[in-house]
Amino acid sequence: MRIWVNGGLRDADDARLSVLDHGLTVGDGIFETVRTSEGRPFALTRHLDRLTRSARGLGLPDPDHDEVRHAVAAVIDANPVALGRLRITCTGGLSPLGSDRGDNGTSLVVALDGVSRRPDSTAAITVPWTRNERGALAGLKTTSYAENVVALARARERGASEALFPNTADRLCEGTGSNVFVVLGGRIHTPPVASGCLAGITRALAVEWTGAEETDLPMDVLAEADEVFLTSTLRDIQAVHRVDDRELTPGIGPVTAKAMRIFAERAGDDLDP
Ligand code: PLP
Q1: What class does this enzyme belong to in the EC scheme (predicted)?
Q2: Is the dihedral of CA 118, 207, 140, 244 positive or negative?
Q3: Ligand 1 center–CA 54 separation, angstroms
Q4: In angstroms, what is the span from residue 141 Cα to ligand 1's centroid?
Q5: What is the ipTM of this complex?
Q6: 8-40: pLDDT as tens digits
């Protein structure tokens, strides 16, 4: 694997950041995960815009979009894969051991690995830990993802692939790496960004293309919903057939199936000419 690190491509074994990088010592960094299909990144402009929003939220300098695009093209070129997970990471850079950021500039890392298509349907659990919709990091895609690692491990222990968080007001928020949608009486709903969820790029497209409504939802909605589905860069739209111990429609519910069809058709359009 060839990885872009601070200005050039390196072999994975030789790609280095300082062990005192603030991204490593305190999780001071931001990232984007972009899907590539046959060497084409999906919705790269939207990802770069969100990277900039995350940088501003964290007080990192604005990433140089031309530099990132150049790095993305180089990494895609050097790592041919059919379906890829491209990760763009910007970190606080080399700094003293402490909470203050250093003044040695930030780091840019771009890496790509091949992935398989996710199954069309999966199981999810709910977790008691909360997303903090009023926290400084709410809605930012930072490298401080350890809470998601813990929640995902809990999901795996219970035979699921995603864990759904409430926010501090016990409203439905999002998954560790996905946004959540519920179907009630034929209508599709998803929590608003004010719930503390990430403004997912797939979520925004699903809302635009299916007419889903942004609705403040109690956690209990998961016990009543006719259908539940997840959205994310690598899942696109993925049906949920079980939430905790509750089995939902066997197979994929009709509203979710329609949303999947619409998404598959529209996502083929070149969003990023
Ligand atoms: N929520 C969180 C916490 C995420 O990490 C992600 C994906 O990376 C999403 C939601 C879905 O966002 P997107 O559709 O942009 O991948």
Answers
A1: lyase
A2: negative
A3: 13
A4: 8
A5: 0.99
A6: 999 999 999 999 999 999 999 999 999 999 999
